[in-house]
Amino acid sequence: MVQISDLNANQKEAVLDGRKDLRIVAGAGSGKTAVLTERVLRKIKSGVHIDELLIMTFTNAAAKEMKDRIRKKLKKENMISELDLIDSAYITTFD
Prior knowledge:
By secondary structure, the chain is mostly helical. The chain has helices at about 10-15, 30-45, 60-75, 80-85, and strands at about 55, 90-95. The chain is built from 4 helices and 2 strands. Helix 2 packs across helix 3 (about 60-75).
């Protein structure tokens, strides 16, 4: 599982960016899912609930992967109350 310390400078900047809305644009295999997963975990740790976020991607497979990675991070961090909310979270596609 990727940790923030594994990310490059641009990826870390995206994770740590304090803006409310952020769009990540990058090519396939560039680490978008890792960046967004870390960003979501950071938001949750700051008091935002997973079901208060809108997380969008382009394919159903990518949305499923995102949810799976977030679920693993939440389990690792023992964030049980957020795990209870993840199935109602808005992790979806643009269509």
